[in-house]
Write a structure and sequence with these properties.
CATH superfamily of the largest domain: Thiamin diphosphate (ThDP)-binding fold, Pyr/PP domains
Number of domains: 3
Helix content: 40-55%
CATH class of the largest domain: Alpha Beta
Structural class: alpha/beta
Strand content: 15-25%
Number of helices: 23
Shape: globular
Strand order of the largest sheet: 3-2-4-5-7-6
Radius of gyration: 26 Å
CATH architecture of the largest domain: 3-Layer(aba) Sandwich
Length: 577
């Protein structure tokens, strides 16, 4: 019996003296809170953190550039409602990731950028440490929140605060600074375990005020030409069933922003996408659900909006109200709770919009859809944007569960109008800032987080920002099919150097570039296609096989317009007109 007691005492002493360190505590804190994937790039001082995370069962996706890893983490947050995690090295690596962090904050994607950093005592005295930089100060203006952890026993608090800041209220990007010395700090394992925090209810519901619901419903009832406008915040909220029920019970036409497409199928009879210009100009009451009146909606004023109108806005942030125009009926709260409250008030007896309004919307839709069908049916040689998009439109219709990533200028603009989406959170594009270069990061994260195939459509210019990640796609053998609309340049490939010199025009790329060879170089499948039939066969084979594939779709170099549909944002000198 004494031997048993001695053995128990020995184990108790060993348990008390067992050690852990900052590396393991960071990993344990993330895993405790359900974080399973890390997107990043290893290097000083976080190489062992990445190695140990993988050794401890986390999936670590190593990229070729931190900005692409950050974009992957950001869209992972959008897809999962958990903060996507990006891991970078210090200084230049941190700055690369910062672009993605700022973009995540602007788009309201929950993300945590974790970066190793130099030691505080050296940074503060500017003594010239390796990659010395005050990263916390730089991150603060571009993030929803920023924290630094200096002691191993505070790692649990730091991770918990980062998670809660990223997902609560209006989601956004959070920076977590981990100096090199922190990671190597050790402490008793039991104390370390006790210091970790499992975040409870990180994004609590925020219920709308009852009188705000009454005001919104009354305004909707008074409308003669109502419109519901769905933003990507509505898609993020995962209130899909209630949003659909609200649209259908009210009978009001709805217009989805690009990343809200699929909340209801784009082929739904109440969809007003094909009559976008008409409904924005003619509606008298517009209800915004998770959408902001920013530049994408002409700030809620001007010629786009035509006749005077009143706005209902559902948003979790009260400061969003009146940001551009007066909001007659602000509804502040989380979208799920707000829509549920509206649905209960609407009930089953809500008066449907008048036939005059619905018939007018349908008339414009039918006219525009017929015009689009005629455009799509034309056979062109070489392919233009529409003849190529006709193929992808059918592919997405046949495979509604795949994720569709889209970036470019003309490639983005035309695809938004042509390709219908059927399920929520399947269309991932450039979002609020309209930035290029998100494509490969988004594609990788979509494949990792959904475990389903991804179709990524990029303009040749947009692909150049993140194209090296085809190696990452091949290395992890991800079921991603990349289609590049290649017209030899930015916007189009026919510009000339005005001086007549040997240098190409500033918007020109190498003619006849074979991007498919890049994918082949890393062991993937490449296709060079010049006809719709070849494009159709290549994409369908890629989705069937699940192999990393890149399709170089040769587009007429003369196809495309300056800045896509954003010509008004790209001032031109009088000499160039």
């Amino acid at each position: 019996m004494a031997e048993v007691d001695n053995e128990l005492q020995r184990h108790a002493v060993e348990a008390q003296t067992a050690q852990t360190d900052g590396f393991h505590l960071v990993i344990d804190a993330l895993k405790l809170n359900g974080i399973e994937n890390i997107y990043g790039l290893p290097g000083i001082p976080v190489t062992d953190l990445a190695r140990l995370a993988q050794a401890n069962g986390m999936r670590v996706i190593s990229f070729r550039h931190e900005q692409n890893a950050g974009n992957a983490a950001a869209i992972a947050g959008f897809l999962t409602q958990k903060p996507g995690v990006c891991l970078t090295v210090s200084a230049p690596g941190f700055l690369n990731g910062l672009t993605a962090l700022a973009n995540a904050t602007t788009n309201c994607f929950p993300m945590i950028l974790i970066s190793g950093s130099s030691e505080r005592e050296i940074v503060d005295l500017q003594q010239g440490d390796y990659e010395e930089m005050d990263q916390l100060a730089i991150a603060r203006p571009h993030a929803k929140a920023a924290f630094r952890v200096l002691h191993a026993e505070d790692i649990g608090v730091g991770v918990a605060r980062a998670i809660r800041a990223a997902v609560s209220g209006r989601p956004g990007g959070v920076y977590l600074d981990l100096p090199a010395k922190l990671l190597a700090q050790s402490m008793e394992a039991e104390k370390g375990r006790n210091s970790l925090i499992k975040v409870v209810d990180p994004a609590p519901r925020q219920l709308p005020a009852p009188d705000s619901i009454d005001r919104a419903v009354a305004l909707l009832k008074s409308a003669k030409r109502p419109l519901i406008l769905l933003g990507k915040g509505a898609a993020y909220a995962r209130a899909d069933a209630d949003i659909r029920a609200l649209v259908e019970k009210t009978g009001i036409p709805y217009l989805p922003m690009s990343m809200a497409k699929g909340l209801l199928p784009d082929t739904h009879p109440q969809s007003a996408s094909a009559a976008r210009s008409y409904v924005l100009a003619e509606a008298d009451v517009v209800m915004l659900v998770g959408a902001r009146l920013n530049w994408l909606l002409s700030h809620g004023k001007g010629k786009t909006w035509g006749k005077p109108k009143q706005f209902i806005q559902i948003d979790i942030s009260p400061t969003e109200m009146d940001s551009n125009v007066a909001i007659e009926a602000p509804v502040v709260g989380d979208i799920g709770s707000c829509v549920k409250a509206l649905l209960e008030k609407v009930g089953n007896g809500f008066p449907k919009p008048g036939a005059e309004w619905l018939n007018a919307v349908d008339e414009r839709k039918d006219k525009n859809l017929a015009k689009m069908a005629e455009t799509l049916s034309k056979e062109t040689s070489p392919m233009n944007f529409h003849s190529a998009l006709r193929v992808l439109k059918d592919v997405v219709k046949e495979n509604p569960g795949i994720s569709f990533v889209n970036e470019g200028a003309n490639t983005l603009d035309y695809a938004r109008a042509v390709i219908d989406m059927y399920e929520p959170r399947k269309r991932l594009d450039v979002g609020t800032w309209g930035v290029m270069g998100v494509g490969m990061g988004y594609a990788v994260a979509a494949a990792v987080e959904t475990n389903k195939p991804v179709l990524a459509l990029c303009g040749d210019s947009a692909f150049g920002f993140s194209g090296m990640e085809v190696e990452t796609i091949c290395r992890y053998d991800l079921p991603i099919c990349i289609v590049i609309f290649n017209n030899n340049g930015v916007y189009k490939g026919v510009d000339v150097n005005p001086t007549g010199g040997k240098d190409p025009a500033v918007t020109m790329f190498v003619k006849g570039a074979r991007y498919d060879k890049m994918m082949e170089a890393f062991g993937g499948v490449g296709h060079n296609v010049t006809t719709p039939a070849e494009l159709d066969a290549a994409v369908k084979e890629a989705l069937r096989s699940g192999r990393p594939t890149l399709v170089n779709a040769v587009i007429d170099p003369a196809a495309g317009t300056e800045s896509g549909r954003l010509t008004n944002l790209n001032p031109q000198s009088s000499a160039s007109k």
